[in-house]
Design goal:
By secondary structure, the protein is largely without helices or strands. It is built from 1 helix and no strands. The protein has one helix spanning 52-59.
């Protein structure tokens, strides 16, 4: 291609329509209608009540 040859012009992309699932948002859900699906109890202590920093200090003193 020579320097004086016209360059092809890019064709503008047609504007994409939004996905049909997102044209309208669903109705909001009331907080009273929701339920907990995860266990919300406290997790057990992974150190079993010990202080790992104190154990390390005593072991390496």
């Amino acid at each position: 291609m020579s320097a004086t040859a016209p360059r092809p012009q890019p064709h503008p992309e047609p504007r994409a329509e939004p996905a049909p699932d997102f044209r309208r948002l669903p109705e909001p859900i009331a907080l009273e209608d929701t339920i907990a699906t995860q266990d919300v109890r406290d997790v057990p202590d992974p150190d079993g009540g010990r202080d790992p920093n104190n154990d390390w200090m005593i072991r390496h003193a």
